[in-house]
Amino acid sequence: MRVHERLRSETAAKTAWAGILKFTTVFPSMARVQGGLEVHQLHCDGEPLQFVDVSGEEIGTIAVPAGSFTALGIFLYVKPPAGKNGMDCHLEYSSLLPMVSRGRVTSSSGAWNGFCLVPGDRVRFDGTVLAAGGELLLTTGVAAPMGPDQQLAFRLLAGDAPVWEHRPRVGPELETVFHRIRVPDCPSGELCLTVEGGPGVGLILDPMAIPERSLPLPAHRERPRPDIVLFLADTLRADALEPWGGDWDIAPNINAFLAESACFVRAWTPASWTLPAHASMFSGLYPYQHGVTYDRRSLPVECVTVAELLSAGGYRTAAVTESSYVSARYGLDQGFEAFEEGPIGRLDVTLERVRRALERDDGRPLFLFVQTYRAHTPYRVSPQTVVRLKRVFGSDPAPQHLDFENLNNRAVAGDDKEGDERSAACRLLEQLYLGGVADLDRGFGELIRILDEIDLHKPTVIFASDHGEAFAEHGLLRHGNSVFEEVSRIPIGIRGAGLDAGRRPLGASLLDLSPTICDIAGIAPDLRWEGSSLLSLVEDRPIYSFSCSPPPDPPWANYALMEGPWKLLGRMPLTGETFDVPDRLYDLRRDPGEQMPSVPGPVRFRKHETRMRALLRPQVAVEELHLTAAEKAALRALGYADSPEK
User: Fold this and answer.
1) Is 75 helix (H, G, I), strand (E, B) or coil?
2) Which residues touch 187 (CB under 8 Å, ≥6 apart)?
3) How buried is 325 (Cβ within 10 angstroms: 0-12 exposed, 13-18 middle, 19+ buried)?
4) Helix or strand or coil: residue 578?
5) Contact assessment for residue 482 and residue 474, using Cβ atoms and an 8 Å cutoff
6) Separation between Cα atoms, residue 563 and residue 230, nearest integer Å
7) Residue 610 burial by Cβ neighbours in a 10 Å radius (0-12, 13-18, 19+)
8) Is the pTM of this model over 0.85?
9) Are 236 and 468 in contact (CB under 8 A)?
10) Which of 240, 287, 334, 367 is most open to solvent, judged by the fewest CB atoms within 10 Å of its CB?
11) Counts for the chain of helices (H) and strands (E), in that order
């Protein structure tokens, strides 16, 4: 697919090299495609320029002839023909993009493969590869406000004849619309996407051209690989569910799903708060290995994510999340062709977006990630759930007992003192939390019904949480501030993939999901990943969990090490050679609530010292972030201060 762009003088910058201008391309990643003139073409007032294949280090040291250019990163370096200054020329650049190497469009609503068009821009491609009866799949949106009389129009032209048009409705939020366009007969062989009207910026998101021979397969024809859906219930305690001692009626849909699944009852998170837990789940590395240990860092591009491997292996990769930490801003969109972010805690909106993602079937197997904060602070419960769970809330609960702010203030105010007042507030907070879990459960039941309606191919559905929640079992509230069981133990259930239903006693980690998903898809995992496929787990192994405190806290890692029935708690310096011996040891068979610690002997810990050193050693260069005031305010609305969830 050859994409054309008219270079604008306002994007040009002079360089330190005589006569060479640097242009920023409108289409991200166009200039990253490898190749010479067969890939990159640039015309100056209709005259073709010569492509020079040089590296970034060479460009300032060799004699670049006039009338030549090169492509580096997202930039074009141009030395205009003799007698032209480049600022007044008409420069048209084109790049031959394979469909898997398109640009990237990001916004506050997510990130997609795709590109931006301003009125007058055109994207041309060879229609002969589709032939009549093929399909063009794409999503449109508008990224800049327009007046009522300045509406944009997206058009598809076959030659010069318009064959499709869409006029988007513009509002305060980015609204995207999916289109499935049947390609007509095109005698000229050229199809063209264009934007007209405006002013404004049109978005072409996640475009895909499908020849007729590879349209979605009929129901009687099987795809070679299964569809995979991963549902992540943020902040869900394992013991809110029946396999871990919870009340079946609190979450009947999730409990029924787990009863039909391989249920890993001894599973822990690698990190006890959202961002590092998700970064580890996707990258296969422990938190201190990938470096995302506090909320001023994003997942480094050096990390290889499960979505990247599946996308390269032929899967359609899509994500529907509720933003905040689970966002493109933090690099978690790596490998997802479409990564859509919605309002926090609005599971109804999330499910509607899931429906739209599922309707975009293009014949490839699907990997879909769905995440919700429905059980997260601020806890809230629907009126219908209050009525259904009378034995939890009573027949006529007092309004203040359903008021999160009131209960939270009472619990936090009592942080430094024990007593009936704080205990009562924490108990009522937990009831309110369980009401939110019940509403989460209703949404999960709806998701299962949606998946059944779509009739996915041999689907494997994975259910998991990223961490739990504390209600002063050890004097602490929330999560991210300890690795006790209430925050580190998580549920994992896998339905499908040839696994028999039943409870699995071997230790598991959220880190294991990436190699497990690759195993299901028949794709080799990245060799740097720490986890193991849960499909072939045959023996127990140590599992590690960290709380990940940010600077300026002391430079040590608070950790838990689970081995068989034993759980060791301690801390280890991130620098230097001195390692602390764990200060608490629990036998989870006899003391699942971690109320009776003993002091571990040094021998039990020393055998893990080399392994622990490796888990604390960075594997990639960290990537720092600067949060805006609006982003900090959004995190505070979720209950977080300017440091991670403590």
Assistant:
1) strand
2) 159
3) buried
4) coil
5) yes
6) 27
7) exposed
8) no
9) yes
10) 334
11) 14, 36
